[in-house]
Amino acid sequence: MSGPVIEVQDLHTRYGSRWVHQGIDFRVERGEVVALVGGSGSGKTTLLRQMIGLLQPARGSVRVFGESLFGGGPRRERALRRRFGVLFQHGALFSAFSVFDNIAFPLRELKLFSEAEIGDMVRLKLDQVELLPEHGRLMPAELSGGMVKRVALARALALEPELLLLDEPTAGLDPDLSDSFVRLIQQLDRELRLTVVLVTHDIATVSALATQVAVMEEGRILAFGSLDQIMHSEHPFICSFFHSDRGVPVEAS
Ligand SMILES: Nc1ncnc2c1ncn2[C@@H]1O[C@H](COP(=O)(O)OP(=O)(O)OP(=O)(O)O)[C@@H](O)[C@H]1O
């Protein structure tokens, strides 16, 4: 496929009478890892929700793989949605399902595979996120924070998506766990040649993963470019964001 993986044009979003996005233009090219950063409440997660079709634009458009997430008919929309995987902010595992059944869920929904095939695929996904087959028997309540993220990532990868969307992938993890989760995403990104969009507040995550950075403020994209370009911006908001006490373990050359 040629053309961008995601193309957002003149996007306006509102919750009730409150406008959250006021004219967003944004493109994600194949193979890029784009980090959405910005102040709290600037509309990052809402933009991610638009990209996965959980919200409809009030104005403007969101196209994924060249198609609108709405209006193509149920079969076409389902086919389009199978091409991306989502890691939600707190993992969003089904608490009544085991790890195995959480990862199997999107595979079973397809009604294309036998239980034996699903078993093989779930074990492969567990291995990809560096968990053991026996972890499949655990319930979400028995998992550490790092394991929840890995299981949620395995579920997001279950249908072998081309596009992966991650909402705050390292939130709630201590620095060591955060580093090892970022390394895992890096490795999978290389192996699976994914296109990735992630929302994060963590500059270390941006520095390790992102090929492009979009800085959001008050419902607009303030700047878009490589981390190096963004780091050299003189915009006061960007300066305070990237050079604050949150620490910038980034060697911008
Ligand atoms: N379901 C909702 N209903 C009403 N308002 C909402 C809803 N979700 C988000 N908002 C509001 O929209 C604005 C943007 O929220 P969003 O979660 O997209 O921001 P964010 O940049 O991801 O913030 P954070 O970094 O704090 O997660 C905020 O003011 C938020 O309160």
Automatic annotation (TrEMBL):
**InterPro entries linked to this entry:** AAA+_ATPase, ABC_transporter-like_ATP-bd, P-loop_NTPase
Keyword Cell membrane in annotation = yes
The entry's keywords: ATP-binding, Cell membrane, Membrane, Nucleotide-binding, Transport
| A Pfam family annotated for this UniProt entry | ABC_tran
Q: Which GO terms describe its molecular function?
A: ATP binding; ATP hydrolysis activity
Against PANTHER family, the record matches this protein to: PROTEIN TRIGALACTOSYLDIACYLGLYCEROL 3, CHLOROPLASTIC
Protein name per UniProt: ABC transporter-like protein
Higher taxonomy: Bacteria, Pseudomonadati, Pseudomonadota, Betaproteobacteria, Nitrosomonadales
